[in-house]
Amino acid sequence: MNVLTDNFSTYGDGFLGTLELTVYASLLALALGFVMASFRVAPVGSLRVFGTVWVTVLRNTPLTLLFFAVLLGLPRFGLVLPFKMFAVLALGCYTSAFICEALRAGINTVPTGQGEAARSLGMTFGQTLSLVVLPQAFRSVIPPVGSTLIALAKNSAIAGAFSVTELLGTYKTLNELGYDIVWTFVWIAVGYLVITLAISALFHLLERTWGIPR
């Protein structure tokens, strides 16, 4: 226990850093995922192509490579931000591709007759999607979206290699101080477990409230 009690502030800073990355990147991923899913089912061909390219590129790019591209590439175009913001961008954009596909799969579960009925009433594509299709699709995508955000929380560990304060990076400081590396990683694992179990509990509650009974 002394590894934790003697370095509680260090673990606390890392835990809060990981929590912030997870929350901000999740919000960005959900927003971008919704937009890209809308593009992928849009009646406009150029939007469908853009959404397809976005998903294909990001899903097939290693996350570490995306971190390098964001942290080293964007400053060349004059965009200079704190490293934490760059990490949020990398994590959020990467995860948005998986959120997009989860939402698109949910949209495909909604009978086509629902959309046709909405259009026959004079609704626009945006109204049909937001008022008719997505509310029904949301019920079936709760579990996969929850799993994707849990993966995001664990993927945030990569940010520590880019000078971002997060939970996994605390092992470097504690290792230099001579603490047992095994117990150092045990408490790091406990921190990640707390975050992932909280996300799991939240989506379990959402699924019980709005999910489709199976």
TrEMBL record:
Entry membrane topology: Multi-pass membrane protein
Keyword Transmembrane helix found: yes
Keyword hit for Iron: no
CDD domains to which the protein is assigned, alphabetical: TM_PBP2
Chain segments annotated as transmembrane: 21-41, 53-74, 86-107, 181-206
Keywords: Amino-acid transport, Cell membrane, Membrane, Transmembrane, Transmembrane helix, Transport
Ranges of residues in domain ABC transmembrane type-1: 15-203
PANTHER family given in the database record: AMINO-ACID ABC TRANSPORTER PERMEASE PROTEIN YHDX-RELATED, MEMBRANE COMPONENT OF AMINO ACID ABC TRANSPORTER
Protein name: Amino acid ABC transporter permease
Organism (species): Streptomyces cinerochromogenes
